[in-house]
Write a structure and sequence with these properties.
Elements: H1 3-12, E1 18-23, H2 29-43, E2 48-53, E3 71-72, H3 77-86, E4 89-93, H4 105-110, E5 114-119, E6 130-133, H5 140-150, H6 159-172, H7 183-194, H8 199-207, H9 212-224, E7 226-228, E8 233-238, H10 240-245, H11 257-261, E9 268-275, E10 280-287, H12 293-300, E11 304-305, E12 309-314, H13 318-328, H14 333-336
Parallel strand pairs: 1-2, 1-4, 2-3, 4-5, 5-6, 8-9
Antiparallel strand pairs: 7-8, 9-10, 10-12, 11-12
The structure holds guanosine-5'-monophosphate and manganese (II) ion.
Manganese (II) ion (MN) is lined by residues 30, 94, 120, 139-140, 172.
Length: 338
């Protein structure tokens, strides 16, 4: 995003606009934190801003300031379509391909609104009028901070904005430990705490609200963990039957994939989660170092993401999906062998 773009956006925002802000489907902490952070910023200028999420998200995200104003497209399609149709500006946050918003895609494509992308995933599509895309960024929340700073409005960051942006930076960096966490990330985090983000409370709200059933599900996931030492790979499976047995709720499996990566010597971890509702196996992939799970997911599992964290899907059944997974490992022998 260059100085010209920033000046044009400044001009656009200098008078009240009808604005829609959109996170990706199955939004995570960064998606909800960044959209709400931007929402609280825009509200101060009397814009009519609405966040429309493609679908619902886990309860552990449902405490952020004005989170309850977020509309869900899946349950309010008509109302949302009218808002998208009437929008002068659409911000798309934490994704870079319109296929990531599911069946909202058609309405957004049809809309004549000026589109602004803020995102840190690899290989962005070319749908936005203004694109702030930077794969080196820890999180979209860090980019929203930078965006507000580029607009010369750091002094407008209040405790609501700070709380939302802190949350997304924390969740997308694995609590400030992934390699994408820079000294600049920490400087921003420091500033957000100064502006009213209560770091300890935010951590509790996100991570210390487990149900007993979720911990039992984690126990099952860990006992299903398999290791393939010759490829420094570990993977977990969870069938729909197992999810049902432990009263699965959206978000319950968040972070499970990282346990594989915590094993000594393992640099590639996967989790395969069966979904009868979507009739797919949902796949999360994580890696350490240069091995790109984004590339593997794009090539074999219809997904994408970042070098060290990506998602994808399989339309095969669980056994066939695992067979496919194991059969492609030799292709990556070079990267995965010690
Ligand atoms: P997760 O495994 O937590 O669902 O996703 C890991 C990362 O990959 C996130 O940044 C997420 O946005 C991205 N991602 C997840 N699923 C998909 C997908 O199906 N397609 C693409 N392009 N990215 C995905
Ligand atoms: Mn993100």
């Amino acid at each position: 995003m260059n100085a010209n773009d920033i000046n044009s956006i400044k001009t656009l925002l200098s008078s009240p606009k009808a604005i829609v802000i959109i996170p990706h489907k199955n939004p995570d902490g960064d998606a909800i934190g960044s959209t709400l952070g931007l929402f609280h910023y825009l509200k101060q200028f009397n814009h009519k801003a609405t966040i429309i999420a493609p679908n619902d998200y886990p309860d552990f995200l449902k405490w952020m300031p004005e989170e309850d104003s977020i509309l869900k497209y899946e349950s309010h399609k008509e109302n949302c379509d009218a808002l998208i149709d009437g929008a002068e500006l659409i911000f798309t946050l934490d994704f870079n391909a319109l296929s990531r918003i599911g069946n909202m895609e058609d309405s957004v494509v049809k809309s004549n609104a000026i589109k602004i992308m803020i995102d840190h995933h690899q290989q962005p599509d070319d749908y936005a009028t203004y694109m702030y895309s930077d794969v080196s960024m820890s999180s979209t929340c860090e980019m929203v901070f930078n965006f507000i700073e580029m607009l010369g409005d750091v002094d407008k960051i209040n405790s609501a904005i700070a709380t939302c942006l802190y949350t997304g930076i924390m969740t997308d960096t694995g609590s400030f430990r992934f390699p994408s966490t820079t000294s600049n990330t920490h400087a921003i985090i420091g500033e957000l705490i100064e502006k009213g983000a209560n770091n300890s409370e935010i951590h509790n709200n996100i991570y210390d609200t487990n149900s007993y059933a979720r911990l039992q599900l984690l126990g099952r996931a860990l006992s299903n963990l398999k290791v393939i030492p010759e490829y420094r790979t570990a993977y977990i499976t969870l069938t729909q039957e197992e999810l049902n047995k432990f009263d699965f709720k959206k978000g319950d499996t968040e972070g499970f994939v990282n346990y594989g990566l915590s094993l000594k010597g393992i640099i590639f971890a996967a989790i395969f989660i069966e979904s009868h509702q979507d009739d797919i196996i949902k796949i999360s992939l994580r890696s350490k170092g240069a091995f790109s799970v984004n590339e593997l997911s794009r090539s074999h599992f219809n997904g994408g993401g970042h070098t060290n964290a990506a998602g994808g899907r399989s339309e095969l059944n669980m056994t066939e999906t695992i067979d496919k997974f194991i059969s492609i490992l030799p292709k990556y022998k070079q990267d995965l062998n010690p």
